[in-house]
Amino acid sequence: MSTPLAEEPVPEPPLTAEQEREQQLTKLRQSGRDERNLLGTVLTTFGDWSQKLQEQKIDVKLGQWSCFHAGCFMDAVHPSIANVSDATAAITTTDSFLRWNSSKMRSGEITRPDGTVEVTWLLFAPPEGEPALQPPRTP
């Protein structure tokens, strides 16, 4: 008599970019208030993103930052996927991005009905007691 084979578990389908982004944003929102004033740090320091994008003539509509205990996020709307790549290359070389003292993440591309492409940038909060920014780099 043969032993029946155990059924293989069916793997979960991969998350879409939109689903993954929503999971991350839900975690941030549920973490509570921004008691460390991460928003103040972001608003005073991350203007170099806009400056770099303007210098390189990359068309992006940056949204407003929102911050919570676990970190901050901002949406960015691009005219095309190629534009997302160009903007990502520019943003990831800015001083503020490089000095952020914790993990960072950009969501996958989410194509909107009008053909524009949305991504969300997330800055995760540094460990308690650590500054939000590393000291400036010296040349």
Write a structural description:
- The structure is a single chain.
- The protein is globular.
- It has one domain: 2-Layer Sandwich (Alpha-Beta Plaits).
- It contains five helices and six strands, in the order H-H-H-E-E-E-H-H-E-E-E.
- By secondary structure, the chain is an alpha+beta fold.
- Strands 1, 2, 3, 4, 5 and 6 form a six-stranded antiparallel beta sheet that branches.
Q: Which overall shape is indicated by the principal axes computed on the Cα atoms?
A: globular
CATH class: Alpha Beta
Total number of beta strands: 6
Oligomer type:
single chain
Total tally of structural domains = 1
Going by helix content, strand content and strand pairing, the class is alpha+beta
Low-confidence stretches: none
Order of helices and strands: HHHEEEHHEEE
Global Rg: 19 Å
- What share of residues are in beta strands? 15-25%
CATH architecture: 2-Layer Sandwich
State the distance separating the first and last CA atoms: 75 Å
Would you tell me the overall average pLDDT?
A: 93
The CATH topology is given as Alpha-Beta Plaits
Helix content: 25-40%
Can you give keywords for this protein?
6 strands, Alpha-Beta Plaits, 139 residues, alpha+beta
Sequence-ordered SSE layout with sheet pairings:
Blueprint: H1 17-30, H2 38-45, H3 48-55, E1 61-62, E2 66-68, E3 71-78, H4 81-91, H5 95-99, E4 104-106, E5 110-111, E6 117-124
Antiparallel strand pairs: 1-3, 2-3, 3-6, 4-6, 5-6
Summarize the structure.
With 139 residues, the chain is an alpha+beta fold. 33% of the residues lie in helices and 19% in strands.
